[in-house]
Design a protein that fits this description.
ABC transporter transmembrane region fold, Rossmann fold, elongated, 6-stranded mixed sheet, alpha/beta
Length: 577
């Protein structure tokens, strides 16, 4: 999985990778050449007292060292820039893929794991790619070349290499095999910590209101302890690697000196050759150590690559057709034709055989008890989900036959939980229309009954809005979200219980000011308060996912017991208030 991910995303970086390979070859070959020169100086120059030879050969060593330094710098620079570019591309692809997901895929993964996959997991892959580019050529060449050069210096000590290198390989292999499942658990633990922390930050007011700080602390402690335990298990495995590697390293060095000294003493080997052999053995073992580091990082990166690939390979359940048809221009009607919908894995459908038409210039209201499917019904219009039966039509065209962007361009949605982005009042309103002028923004704010409080804010349109709109009240967020939809001037307005946080007087003023601006548009309103939709041209009453009544307010009072029950219950509450 890791190799596939790297292979697919390194193709645009063929030139930098070629430069890295070339300069790694230069750096590795110069590293292999230096010990031999050093041995020659000791044996030929120092032993014979030949100063000119020492200076000449030393000069060559200096030039070779400078070339080695330059090549190493070039490799490090290109490896860092290439791995960072690959991480940037991966993050962009994951973000684009998540942007294309329907609500079904977003619910399946969840926000915490998508965040950690696009940050922590990609960082793991980036680190391995960086290390791999820096050492992918030098490690095997250094090992093979070092062995050849060591044998060239003295064959009698070659058995030490034959013992030390396989021993290191066996040690590393056993530890890496044990690390793989722990790395998978570690990434899952990161997801859990991320999820709980996100929930606690988002729901801090609820936690405090119900005095559940201790419970939430225990919940976080459990997730944190699980992550800590996993990290400690990985750390214990890591801690066994380097002592064992250093033991083999030092034991091999002592053995070279012990047996090499005997061979020097017997005249079978020169001191310079012994020093060169020692250096080559160090290079061989150092390359093995770097291989060890790579081997320890690869399992975690492999798990991360699998998690990234899972996101990239997940297709959206809502797709554009191969040959999309355009939605007619101008005012369009929205029709639900025998619509049914069931969430994946659900035993029963949420909506069953829903049929009605919302026409331009009219307001269609949807009411019903909690859980009757009102929000789900509205979510089918912008294709947050696809229907499982029947069809939703805009302008007489099944929305599954149109491009999603064509559908979205016709809609102005005010969700049940209005969300504002970090920025300013103006930047949030211009989500509806990036080209909107300040006068158009103020007009939308006036209609949405938000002009007064925005004018009172320091900066007016340039007043800062924090992430999620947490620095304004719930009613102010709703009015800003309504203004954002008005700035767009769409053909279809979708209000999902968008007036619930407004008092009755503000609600009435807003609906009165709104009427002239939407008289040519199709308006669908989901509402809890009957007073909000009492003047609607058509009211659809839902009960347990089915239409149990349709008509105007006065008609439903005579023909729909469910609607009468809703009206009476609200009348009782208003009288009690």
């Amino acid at each position: 999985m890791l190799l596939r991910l790297i292979r697919e995303h390194l193709r645009p970086y063929a030139v930098p990778v070629a430069v890295i390979v070339l300069f790694q070859l230069v750096a590795t070959l110069t590293n292999l050449y230096l010990p031999s020169l050093n041995g020659q100086i000791i044996d030929d120059g120092v032993a014979k007292g030949d100063t000119a030879y020492i200076v000449r050969t030393g000069g060559i060593m200096l030039v070779v060292s400078l070339v080695n330094i330059l090549a190493t710098v070039v490799v490090a620079y290109h490896a860092a820039s290439t791995s960072a570019g690959l991480a940037r591309d991966l993050r962009g692809e994951v973000f684009d893929r998540v942007q294309s997901f329907s609500a079904q895929e977003l619910s399946r993964f969840g926000a915490p794991t998508l965040i950690s996959r696009n940050t922590n997991d990609i960082t793991q892959v980036q680190t391995v790619v960086n290390m791999g580019l820096m050492f992918m050529v030098s490690i095997p060449i250094m090992m093979v070349g070092g062995i050849i050069m060591a044998l060239r210096e003295d064959v009698g000590l070659s058995w030490l290499v034959a013992v030390a290198v396989p021993l290191l390989g066996i040690i590393v292999g056993l530890i890496v095999v044990r690390m793989l499942p722990w790395f998978r658990r570690m990434q899952e633990s990161v997801d859990a910590v991320n999820r709980i922390l996100r929930e606690q930050i988002t729901g801090i007011r609820v936690v405090r209101a119900f005095v559940r700080e201790d419970f939430e602390e225990r919940r976080f402690d459990e997730a944190n302890a699980a992550y800590t335990g996993t990290a400690l298990a990985v750390g214990r495995l890591f801690s066994t690697v380097f002592p064992l590697v250093m033991f083999v390293f030092n034991a091999a060095s002592v053995a070279v000196l012990w047996f090499g000294a005997r061979r020097v003493d017997s005249g079978e080997m020169e001191v310079g050759a012994l020093m060169a052999f020692m250096t080559y053995l160090v290079q061989i073992l150092m390359s093995v150590m770097f291989g060890v580091m790579m081997s320890m990082m690869i399992p975690r990166a492999s798990v991360s690559a699998g998690r990234i690939t899972e996101v990239l390979d997940t297709p959206s359940s809502v797709l554009d057709p191969a040959s999309p048809s355009p939605i007619p221009q101008g005012p369009v009607a929205v029709e639900f034709r025998g619509v049914s919908f069931a969430y994946p894995g659900a035993d029963h459908p949420v909506l069953s055989d829903i049929s009605f038409v919302a026409r331009p210039g009219e307001t269609t209201a949807i009411v019903g008890s909690t859980g009757s499917g009102k929000t789900t019904l509205l979510s089918l219009v912008p294709r947050l989900y696809d229907v499982t039966g029947g069809a939703v039509l805009i302008g007489g065209l099944d929305i599954r036959q149109a491009q999603q962007t064509d559908v979205w361009n016709r809609l102005g949605l005010v969700p049940q939980k209005p969300f504002l982005f970090g920025g300013t009042v103006a930047s949030n309103l211009r989500f509806g229309d990036p080209e909107a002028t300040d006068d158009e923004l103020w007009e939308a704010l006036r209609v949405a009954q938000a002009e007064d409080f925005v004018s009172a804010m320091a900066g007016g349109l340039d007043a800062p809005i924090s992430q999620g709109g947490t620095n304004v009240s719930g009613g102010q967020r709703q009015r800003l979200a309504i203004a954002r939809a008005l700035v767009r001037r769409p053909e279809v307005y979708l209000f999902d219980d968008s007036f619930s946080a407004l008092d009755l007087a503000t609600d009435a003023r807003l609906r009165s000011a709104l009427r002239p601006h939407i008289e040519q548009a199709t308006v669908i309103v989901v509402a809890q308060r009957v007073s909000t939709i009492i003047e609607a041209d058509q009211i659809i009453v839902l009960d347990d996912g089915a239409v149990v009544g349709a008509g105007r307010h006065t008609e439903l009072l005579e023909s729909c017991p469910t609607y009468v029950e809703i009206v009476q219950s609200q009348a009782v509450r208003e009288e009690a208030a």
